[in-house]
Amino acid sequence: MSTATQQNAGARAPIGDLTAPGAILLVSCYELGHQPLNLAFPLAYLTQAGYSPVAVDTAVEPLDDAAIAAARVVAISVPMHTALRLGTQVARRVRQINPDAVIGFYGLYAWLNADYLLREHGDFVIGGEYERPLLDFVRALAAGSDEPVEGVSTRDYRVPPSLARIDFPMPERASLPAMKRYAHLMIDGTAIPAGYTETTRGCHHTCLHCPVVPIYRGRFFAIPREVVLEDIRRQVRQGAGHITFGDPDFLNGPTHALRICRAMHAEFPHVTFDMTTRIEHILKHRDLIPEFAQLGCVFVVSAVESVSEMVLDRIDKGHTKADVVEALRILESAGIAMRPSLLPFTPWTTMEDYLELLRFVEEYDLIDNIDPVHFSIRLLVPPGSALLDRPETKEWLGPLDEAAFTYTWRSPDPRLDALQQEVARIAEAGEAAGQDYEETFAQIKAAAYAAAGLEVPPPVRRDTGVRRRPPRLSESWFC
């Protein structure tokens, strides 16, 4: 009888020695092109407790059959939709090669899709603060305990995600693939290896479409400054000349963020960084922006999402089109580029909204600031989404497509559904061909105006003849 069958029967036999090298296998599939912190933290937690886990990042290295066959517990990191799609493929392969392995998923999208994952692919899921629950579950498996573990849902029982603050260990990166195999900062014709860390978990805000919200519900935790700084120090020793602060919002705790940046700059004045923060926070903390620039900030990712007031209101984004314009001005005055992320296709988007977005991008000279894939992004509504709590959602929501990890929906304007598919095709083809962003944008613009039945207006000409590409990471990213 397999381990999974034993769990379904309600009796768990001791799984044996999980301290043996490779008995625990941690897998990451996609984490936006950076060395996975979602491997480094659990690696540290498990290693400190006497285990010898093996970690594999399938984005840059193969997962061989021998590692799968040797594992008794396989935990797959799924912090986002793309990672989950790839992660279920890994789980399927693990089940074929090693049917007795206990397979689980951890991260935001694990808990959101728990019912489907536990029925079709895995034996456990962990959401929220995952390190302590994972360790406790490993210990329970080793002891053969059937008792529920805080933060861990199985086929036998469901529990809420754990939001208990953990003791953050120093991330364990020594066994992970080399820094040079991940995204680089592209700036002034130079490629600089980019490291990655986080200063907080969760988010203070509750945007309705965000996958962080159903888990953290407005809470966030600061990671100790000494842990963050030592993690940066170790990555710089490995060759990083740039650091991505990947917090859901770096300015949730602005004082914490500023102290870390000051300390990093004092020790490594040559190291640059980027951060993600809300338009609202750029405006609120405008007095801090010049100092962040002096400390090495070269670009800011901000979830602009749309310039339609209707769309921004429906997702409770907390900013307006005018706020975006002001945020651009604040960043530009400090010498920092904005890299907007977009959500152009929603149930409320009109054709005019999409054309307005394209005009806005041209008017404010943002073509080179936006990865073309962002012009194709379609609203995901995963199980547990805060959008499901809104009564008006039933007006447009379709059935749940469990295997796609989202509820379905269609635009009231069929032209927009067709346009979304065409823009996705254009963006993918442009990325594969290494096409210039301006050329890809021109093709997207032509497709949009054709869908609207309108003549394509001429491109907006820049005031200057010099085209200076803004800093960016070498890998286009999407959730």
UniProtKB/TrEMBL annotation:
NCBIfam families: rSAM_CUAEP. The keyword Chloroplast does not apply. Residues 189-422 form the Radical SAM core domain. It comes from the Bacteria. CDD domains: Radical_SAM (cd01335). Residues 21-148 form the B12-binding domain. Pfam families: Radical_SAM. The keyword Acyltransferase does not apply. GO terms for cellular component: cytosol. Keywords: Iron, Iron-sulfur, Metal-binding, Methyltransferase, S-adenosyl-L-methionine, Transferase. SUPFAM superfamilies: Radical SAM enzymes (SSF102114). This is Radical SAM domain protein. Its cofactor is [4Fe-4S] cluster. One of its GO terms (molecular function) is cobalamin binding.
